[in-house]
Amino acid sequence: MKSQRLAWKDFLAQRQAVLDSWPTGRDVAAIEDGLRYQRAIPEDKSFAKAMSKAKAAGRTLLQPRAGVALIDDHIRLLRYLETEGTADLLPTTIDAYTRQNRYEEAARGIEKSRAAGTSLLNGFPAVNHGRDGCRAVTEAVTKPVQVRHGTPDARLLAEISLAGGFTSYEGGGISYNIPYAKKVEIGKCLRDWQYVDRLVGHYEENGISINREPFGPLTGTLVPPFISHAVAILEGLLALDQGVKSITLGYGQGGNVLQDLAALASLRELADEYFRKAGFEGYDLTLVFHQWMGGFPEDEAKAFAVISLGTFVAAAGRVEKTIVKSPHEAMGIPTKEANAAGLKATRQVLSMMADQQICADNAIVRREMDLIRREVDSVMSAVLGAAGDDIVQGIVRAFAGGILDVPFAPSIYNKGKVLPVRDNEGCIRLFAKGNLPLGEDIMSFHKERLQERSKAEGRPVTFQMVTDDIYAISKGKLIGRPR
Ligand code: 5AD
Questions:
Q1: pTM tops 0.85, yes or no
Q2: At the N or C end, where does the chain have fewer CB atoms within 10 A?
Q3: From 99, 155, 449, 453, active-site residue
Q4: Which atom of ligand 1 is nearest to the CA of 124?
Q5: Which of 127, 99, 113, 111 is nearest to 24 (CA)?
């Protein structure tokens, strides 16, 4: 693989148009201003440092999601989550207009929220609030703060939020496009994310480590581990190529505990291997585990149970960070109290697990790790084979040919031919592989496991079974068995 690092002159050639796309872009025109500001941020508010310390100490940090329209309200919310909720790391979740670069509508949302005295946006419109609004937020709290969003073209948001004191930036050219957008061309999105990663690389070259986190769970809907792993590894390679050093790869809870533990262990192992093989060194790789990203039970007690089981896996899997859900998940954006309640439940389980070593070295975990490795290797060698010298082109071609295919994604550039379903123990398997480059040996294992479930339930594997699985957890089960 040849480096596709964006030349600084090409970065600058794009930069003016990026900053001109909304008036607040003017405030970050001097890139040195952002560097100077970041240099003065105390070390204990560095996201990269916090993640690497957690790795050294074998600790799992907890982080909520949160964002409202107005600066003062957002500050109050974050302060509540760090004090009452004991969050180790803070988020700033960006609203849907900003994610689509619709800053005029975000501006109207801000005005209407002021008039209404409550947030009428589903997140914090960081671009509209600009550099100084972001600084007000990051200065008002004691913990590191990350931008969490879902933005295909996140260049301006990155410029403003990094100059604004955020020390971590979520997303990637696949994970913030395919699950989030319908019509964003993959090559364009990957190039826009090369800009973001190059900006982070520039900070890194100037002694400021900004943490980067590709979005692991993708659609959060029965995604087999090897699919999200392949995407995470590719986005990791793209980020490292632009000079990123602090990289956190993610995985969303699938539900079968042993498959999840195998997925976490193999993500760490495989990512490290692929990064080294590509010639990268000196990076700091950490993991984030997302508590269940699919449909939640409405009942709050049941939601706490889902949160707690996820937390157990995060602790047993020894990840550096877990993203916390709330008991309001089935209803929508949580109140600050519900958000803190999710954090407290998570904290309780993490604390009880802190000194326990769960031995994941058992036959089933080993079998699943071996399977995931073979699957990831099959997909990665096909993508890299299609890439020639250019990994961006390789990814574009892989999606066009269905070599990469994310289940249940809205993007028209995703084939959508893969159908996952649970086996008789709740592991996520493939019912239809579409064009994924998986060999007969791998597919016959998936088939066997599904036949077992088919026999146990006395019904064939059909799309009905897939649908039953999608709703199972919200209805109190893991596997969508017939009644
Ligand atoms: N505040 C809190 N949580 C949010 N989510 C999305 N936006 C916000 C916000 N502004 C959460 C959803 C879901 C996840 C994908 O993100 O509730 O759990």
A1: yes
A2: C
A3: 99
A4: 10
A5: 127
